[in-house]
Amino acid sequence: MARTLLITGASSGIGAACARLGAAPGDHVILHYGRNRDGAEAAAEAARDAGARITLIQADVGRPDDVLRLGKEAAVADPALPLHLVNNAGIVDQRASLADLSPARLTRMFAVNITGAILVAQQAVALMRRGSAGGGIVNVSSTAARKGMGGQYMDYAASKAAIDCFTIGLADELAGEGIRVNAVRPGLIDTEIHAKGGEPARLAEIGHTPPLGRPGTAEEVAEAILWLLSDRASYTTRSILDVAGGR
């Protein structure tokens, strides 16, 4: 069955992998990006090659007005199709201890990773409610949420713990409408996030430490997300799935 697939943070990493692997003939794939237009275009081209119709939307999800505009532009989605949200957009900052966590850093981290994710879900649910097709949501969390990451990325970890809590609450709220809400918690995944966090060599140093002995790929996380959004997971909601090699 054709669907609308709305992916935030689709210009690289897990979001781009979801676009490449999730698109199918007849689908409408709506790809959000922040600044990396070239990456979003590449993901769009792969989804287009799979037979999907594409809409690209630029927005800063840390700005509520931009999220509202994202929702309005995503309203081009056909209300007769189920809408599935991959709530993936997020940021990380440089390694830091408590003394280094400035108000500006915390404000931006939580504006994007918490407030932005909640407001994106709000817009997506409003679109789902326009018709009778419903839909589903997968929030992208992190195993950092259960590790704390003291002295490293404690603010990022806290933001992802909030996403875990939000996932559970939203699943409870929407279950009666047939809208399933789940999350994935990626572990050490081979994406650009490590370089963005100031540690481009992180995987080379600790990628062997999960029990499976290697880091994961963006595609492996995307497959888990797409399964949670599929009919094969029709009895799964309020769940948080670790995709972390056993760590």
> What is the CATH homology-level superfamily?
NAD(P)-binding Rossmann-like Domain
Predict the CATH topology. Rossmann fold
User: What is the CATH level 1 assignment?
Assistant: Alpha Beta
Can you write the helix and strand succession as a string? EHEHEHEHEHEEHHEHE
List the domain count as a whole number.
Answer: 1
Ranges where pLDDT stays below 50 over 5 or more residues in a row are none
Name the CATH architecture.
Answer: 3-Layer(aba) Sandwich
Radius of gyration: 17 Å
* Extended strand count: 9
Strand order within the widest sheet? Answer: 3-2-1-4-5-6-9
Judged by helices, strands and strand pairing, the structural class is alpha/beta
Q: Which percent range describes the beta-strand content?
A: 15-25%
Q: Give the end-to-end Cα distance, rounded to a whole number of Å.
A: 35 Å
Number of helical stretches of at least 4 residues: 8
Overall pLDDT level: 96
Biggest sheet record: 7 strands, parallel
Question: How would you sum up this structure, described in words?
Answer:
The protein has 247 residues and is of the alpha/beta class. The chain has a single domain (4-243), classed as Rossmann fold (3-Layer(aba) Sandwich), CATH 3.40.50. Helices cover 41% and strands 17% of the residues. The protein has helices spanning 13-22, 37-49, 64-74, 103-128, 154-174, 193-196, 202-206, 218-229, and strands at residues 4-7, 28-33, 53-58, 83-87, 135-140, 180-186, 189-190, 216-217, 240-243. A 7-stranded parallel β-sheet has the order 3-2-1-4-5-6-9, sandwiched between helices. A two-stranded parallel sheet has the order 7-8. Helix 1 (13-22) links the parallel strand 1 and strand 2. Helix 1 (13-22) packs parallel to helix 2 and helix 4 (103-128) packs parallel to helix 5 (154-174). The longest helix has 26 residues, at 103-128. It is globular and about 50 Å long. The chain starts with a strand and ends with a strand. The mean pLDDT is 96.
